[in-house]
Amino acid sequence: MVNLTIDGKQVTVSKAATIYEAAKEAGVHIPVLCYAKKLLPYGACRVCLVEVEQMKGRLIPSCTTPVSEGMVVITTSDEIKKVRKTVMEFLLVNHVLDCPVCDKGGECDLQDLTYELGATSNRFEGEKFDLPTDEVNPLIERNMNRCVLCGKCVRVCDEIVGYGSYSFINRGFETKIATAYDRGLDCEFCGQCLSMCPVGALLPRPFKFKARPWQLKEVDSVCGYCGNGCTVTLGVKDHKVETIRFNDKIGVNDGNLCVRGRFGYSYVNHEDRLTKPLVRKNGELVEADWDEALQAVADGLSKAQQGQGVGILSGARLTNEELYLLKQVAKVVGTENLDHSGGECYKGVTEGLKGALGVAASTATFPQIEKTNVILAIRSDFYETHPVVGMVVNQAIRRNGAKLAIVADKKGKLDKLPGAKTLLSKPGLELDVLNAMARLLLDEGLAQTEGIEGLEDLKTALADFEPSQVAERTGVDLETLQATARQLAGAENSAILMAYGLPYQGLNKELATAAANLALLVGIPGREGSGLYLCGEKSNSQGAIDLGILPQNAGKGAQQMLDAAAEGKLDGLYVVAEDPLSSYPDRDKVAKAFDKVPFLVVQDLFLSPTAEQADVVLPAASFAEKDGTFTNAERRIQRVRPGIPSPGEARTDGAIFSALANKLGSTVTFTGPAAIFAEIGKDTKAYAEFNFNEIGPQGVVWGGEVLQPVCKKVVAVSGGSSVKGDFQLVTGSALYHSGTVSTKAKGPMAVLSEPYLELSREDAKALSVVDGDLVKVAGNGTELKLKVKVGNRLPKGVVFAPYHFAEANVNRLYKGEPVIAVTVSK
Amino acid sequence: MNAYTQVLFKNRRSNETVLLPEYEKSGGYQGLRAAMKMTPAEVCELIKGSGLRGRGGAGFPTGIKWSFFPADQPGDKYLVCNGDEMEPGTYKDRQLLLADPHQLIEGMAIASYALQTQIGYIFLRYAYEDCFQRVERAIEEAVEVGYLGKNILGSGFDVELHVHGSAGRYILGEETSQLNGLEGRRPNPRSKPPFPAQRGLFGRPTNVNNVETLATVPHILTHGTAWFQNLALNPESAGTKLFGLSGHLNRPECFELPLGITLREVVEDFGGGVRGGKKFKACLPGGASTPYLTADHLDVMMDFNPLEEVESRLGTAGVTVFDEDTCMVAVTRNLNQFFARESCGWCTPCRDGLATISWLLDRIEFGQATNDDLAMLKDQVKNIKGRSFCALAEGAMGPVEALLRLFEDEIKDHIRKGCCPFASN
Lengths: 826, 425
Prior knowledge:
heterodimer; A: alpha/beta; Ubiquitin-like (UB roll); Alpha-Beta Plaits; Rossmann fold; 7-stranded mixed beta sheet; 6-stranded mixed beta sheet; 29% helix; globular; B: alpha/beta; de novo design (two linked rop proteins); 3 domains; 5-stranded mixed beta sheet; 17 helices; 12% strand
């Protein structure tokens, strides 16, 4: 710690602090423009200049100068005031000052500073900038006439996002911020730059001319997309979410968001939202009132349960409280057939981690990743599925020099990070690579074996995973494999990351087990600063596991329910917040199941392909209309708050479950999410220590920042298998989307509007196809036509299709395998 | 005709570059041999004791800079030679590299040893292709005989040198910008602290010295500090300095002269006096960012401290002379246009402030100014000096400040007459 004096106040701060940070801590205000908490010190705008007694003769930039013992700082004097005012005069000479039509007006740093520093007139003259506005893309407008060259957009895109869209170009007075070749912005549109821009130079186009900032009601909530659990602040006007606001003061994400979080909100305002319950009459779905619809559901489910039984399939985007109520509904109906997210993809957590560590969750929190020395990512898609954790990985590498290795069947955004090493394996064989690393650790005596059970069995099982043989079999570079394993063993702290979700049905348990083995052998679980992360695709994937939305006792899992229904052995299906026809593997089987099942209820936001098949459709509320909690992939329980009322008669899933339970004869009633949260603690012990109303802006983490494993048991897993065929198809997530909901959102759709088949340049050349050409993809007895997208992520012979688009029918090819043999032709 | 002891220009001949054998014959690489018999710390001490001050413009004592360098720190460390000679009116490093480049190679080998850096980069100005070839050839020669490369002179110490051509911007001469440039980034300056000695090139400890500074080092090792100090005419100073003369002189050439020589001797004896028999009006003593000297200063010693006493600086010792018919407002305006254009555009006072200075000087020069503009110009200097991110804007204020201090009457003449009083000439 260091002691210094700021404006006569004694301050004691960390020696790593800057003068600005010390002043902030002491409650002394220093104006800033180019400073941003989450970016590295910069010091260009010169608004924050102060006097330091020990450095007389010049003014000192407080935002870049570290404190030192005994420093005497003066933050305001006539000289300082004059300099700051002059800086404003400089900036205002050429600034267009079109505040009346600028969306930033009212929350513009340039306005605020001009006011604060009293720059009421300007002694200088100069021409106003007259640069063309960049409106090439649908999401971010760039008006460089308003730019004050603080460089925050350049820095955030480089330091945090790792994309590097922007740079300063030109010299002197001609200096401006530009994109590559000054051709207009063409990036992945996470909008981090928007959130950093202090003026109206960068603005979200969907929000243009929608509201003045002060007219917006701000509601802090959690993003409804992935398991990252980013805090979002809804900007609400006239009962409509008009924008997502920037907030780096609260939450788990430092104000960072991806394209989905920032621009994907618009589905909540979509005109296709269901507003009334629908009941099938004479083969047609017709509007009905709630009482009629709920009665129909209650009658139908009761009847089905008396017959061959009812199955309940849930999505993982309900709140914890709603999931709890769903479980109660299952009890009242009397069924043990309960499951979520297709029933397979989460088994890495519920069976893999549970078996090895005795806990079914990631072992550490996200911020710890930034401090690790070595990061191993399994599957390259992590940046695509959980972009904001990807940003943490980027910072670990760029700021702290962490080493990153990726075991995957294709390259992704992670592979572009500095120094990233890709262990590019044949599809289906990533598992073997992990096993080979475990083998190497044991062979070379690098493994931490103390207190670990199951070592002998593991050693026996690893006989077939001699690294050089595995390297040959999988196509992975042997030296990289060896180096990665050794790095992991030698690292002070390390992280192993793996994303799971609907498009990754195959080998989840096995991959997670192999990852857990590796983690145990290098001492990750339970170690402060290290972690094994399994991150779910949906906003409450972890909550669904914690709450036990899983087959009860001898009950059927999702796939078994669908099998049974397809065979005519299940009489009712209640599908909540899921569109299995679009997103579950093996669409034909799912279609058959829905066709055969006598009674189908679908509860969703939209009339999805699944809902079109239903006997009763119940209109549900989106995350922006709900009060409750989500648990993110690092076990953080966070508050979801309603910003808008639901459209029409749509109700929250929780309200529907309550009403339905009552219709079914239950007498239990709950008075709001706080009471239900308290109930959850009775079943889910980890939640018992928290009080709903005391969950603060940072949320609460069950199990603590580092979750101690219950057991440490390495478990033998056999290897994967590759497929032979002209082409090997892998499915997964595309960066701009999450599940199927994002296909109803303007933002992600504006960037990626159609399904595609991605293939390597080599393959494209061999097939003589270019971007946009249609190709036939055949496999698993099905043939589809998809548009070609040529990229450099895939090795020759491997093709990729994202699973988000219902109309593409990719899930007719894909039946849950890790990889599918297909043929591709023109 | 130059009777002073020649050190750096000892072997200089017109249109010819000294190759290794000749350099060795003239005592070349004896300094390196001497250094390798000492400990690195002893070499630093010797340079510190010699009184050598940086020849790049700032005049910081080289030995003290070296003593701040964490030579003992394990891991990669770098030595960078700043050869981005872009200061208007400065061309001495070019003359040195064209004449006798091995001095730089030897100096860098010694510095690498003293600072325990393994890799050195010579950062050359974009336009210096001729120097580039000669330096590369000198490196090849030195590697061949073992003055560079692995295990130099059997000492077990390795030195690797690379030449890097600048992308061609004035700001690259600023040491931290240069490091960004070497890394392939946009050459904005970096904030200090951390200083390059702590976190420099690629985030590792880095020492940056000027070409002439490094080229002087071997001679100190060979001949000792007493000899070096005796070279200067000013007993408080040490060594010789390359003076690049330009402007309205009869002989605008580059000379090696002792520090402490008077401006009069430089202008009259070496520069051959002002062209066309005109009177000496003013000069830039050391490049475009040094405040003017006038005829009143002709007997001032051309040396670091004496020039600071008359509110100027020795800078690079690139002396640009202006005759009596020169409009100093026009000169200053021209210089300021250069600095405004070459500002990296990062910090507000430099990017926008220099533009306003240009705007004011335009108004004065073209007779549109009022006394308010003069007052504003005076105020502006204060708003820019000591407020900017790096030394560029500070340097740009040198001539402007001197214009206001020494030639205020000339400015007022412009304002009163509503035009440039020298325009008819």
